[in-house]
Request: fold
Amino acid sequence: PPASPVKLVFIHHSTGGHWLADPNDYIYGGLGTALMNNNYYVSATNYEWGPNGIGSRTDIPNWTEWFTGENSSTIMNAVYSETGQNIGDFGAWSRLPTAPGGENTIVMFKSCFPNSNLYGNPDDPAASEPNDAYSVSNAKAVYNKILTYFQTRQDKLFVVITAPPQTENESPDDPDLSKARRAANARAFNNWLLNNWLSAYPYKNVAVFDYFN
Reply:
């Protein structure tokens, strides 16, 4: 753990909120307390947060709007300066009693489980440019694109939380691509994030946490 408190902000929706939450009568994971006990001061975004309600848009295709879009400077300045918990409909979590000065140093961000409903094929290469598709090729293109922003902010640590898996019952039926094949695509993409995405990245300010496997 760091010797002095470090400010961290988590961009998330439901599963992230439940993961942060202290023990309660519903769903909780205790991540907020665990981070507090390791000297991190944790803030978060949520639905409707930020410039133009960007907090509501955390699907994989949305990450380019956050990090490389035309309003990304405004959005990221708000992310770096955020000190609220923005708990919303999810459980509260404990924090250090005093916020350290300065900006958030660590940015964690996560798409939710519907983003594990990916089309295409497991070994599809990245598209040349990101688009709006929920596919293996576009997901790779999005993460390759935002890496160009991360390399300009080596004063920050960016932690990608892989999208959690979607249960078979929650996955929509589609005659064009079976649930099993979409699940295989999601696993292949998350394995790519873990094992291949950063292989040629020369800096030490990006990490991936495997929330899928």
User: Anything to note?
Assistant: The longest strand covers residues 6-11. The two ends are 25 Å apart (CA to CA).
